[in-house]
Design goal:
With 341 residues, the chain is an alpha+beta fold. It has a domain at 40-265: Metal-dependent hydrolases (TIM Barrel, Alpha-Beta Barrel). The protein has six helices and 22 strands. The strands form five sheets. Strands 4, 5, 6, 7, 8, 13, 14, 17, 18, 20, 21 and 22 form a twelve-stranded mixed beta sheet that branches.
Length: 341
Amino acid sequence: MGRARAFIRPAVFVALCALCGVAWAYRTLPGFGDVRPAGGQWYKGNTHTHTTNSDGDSTPDEVVRWYRDHGYRFLVLSDHNVLTSVDGLKAPHGADEQFLLIKGEEVTDVLVEGKPIHINGLDVSRRVEPQHGYSIVDVIQRNIDAIRAADGVPHVNHPNFNWSISAADLERVERVKLFEIYNGHPLVNNVGGGGVPGMEEVWDRLLTGGKVMYGIADDDAHVFKQPGNPDVAGPGRGWIFVRSERLAPRSIVEAIERGDFYASTGVELSDYQVTADTITVTIKELPASKYRIQFIGAKGQVLKEAISSPATYTFTGDEKYVRAKIFESNGRVAWTQPVIR
């Protein structure tokens, strides 16, 4: 992408969401010019899941049943280099405005030196072959472009898996707005280590440099038959709440691409508003939990911290971006998408 920052204050449209009692103040993103229409509801969903069609331990029917039974509203089936059909699953599991299945694929590529490159394609119209390439950036870009050619929305998966994709690599790729800041697989090194930054540090580096990207949380589930085992890639560890006009594939994936969602490992918001002057976050609090809300800006600097909800940040006028991170006392977290200044 690499678009220059704009310093126009967002236009504001305020709407209440009926689902989960969440409200959002709609705005124009200066970096992209996306006007977000009033209305819509919030839908909980997961964009990264596997079945026996690739390397999962459960059939598509069993996988879909797990998410439906656990309160999700949409699911992307993203088997490795397989476009799992969702048509035969719609009748038993889906109903209008109840539960949505979205076809997808984890385009799985590898460099000669063994570095895995995995790019999800959301709502692709056909199977996408791994495109290969001569460098990490080249492989990422070729697969992103192939997903776009198949009418899909790409997101870069687990950059620190086998330490394959660096912040510098992500800075150079184009035509992608999404990457995973949290992946529930136990081997993807979300928090970094050994001198390699974690995904949030990478996110702030990209945003500080003027590259707008949105952070996805998902579970990358492969193993459904060992509930409670932390050493396997089980379901229900990360997800997103998407604001959409309809529970329909294009409506959902377009909302994700324009950043109309927040990511979570267990924290739910009851209200989130952005105006020309402020960001306000209200938590759907659990009775036994306590919370901390950070408003984060350029270079990952904490601009303000609050211990009560609702919490409001007032723009000073010189921020490049502001995003919120909400901590729950038992380790659950939520991340809102950056407001570009």
